[in-house]
Design a protein that fits this description.
By secondary structure, the protein is mostly helical. It starts with a helix and ends in a 5-residue tail after the last helix.
Length: 83
């Protein structure tokens, strides 16, 4: 009987780790998308200054893309499946 309790605790620990990973992946994905969207909107409204702000804008775009890609790697690694 003690083995069953041990297995239950192990399963709940894995579920908690998976929930934390899912949450972190979602936060990174949405934060990356917000950075990308606001960066594009900012560039559209400031086209007259685009030659002066391109390097700052480009660094934000790269950061947003990296956040989205890392969140997708988390999703791929743990095999998130929608139910």
């Amino acid at each position: 009987m003690p083995e069953k309790r041990f297995l239950r605790k192990e399963i709940t620990n894995k579920n908690q780790e998976n929930k934390n990973l899912v949450f972190a992946g979602k936060v990174m994905f949405y934060f990356g998308m917000v950075i990308l969207i606001f960066g594009l909107i900012y560039m559209i409204f400031n086209l007259d200054k685009s030659d002066r702000i391109i390097w700052v804008w480009l660094s934000f775009m790269i950061a947003g893309i990296m956040l989205v890609l890392v969140s997708l790697v988390f999703k791929w690694q743990k095999g998130w499946r929608r139910k």
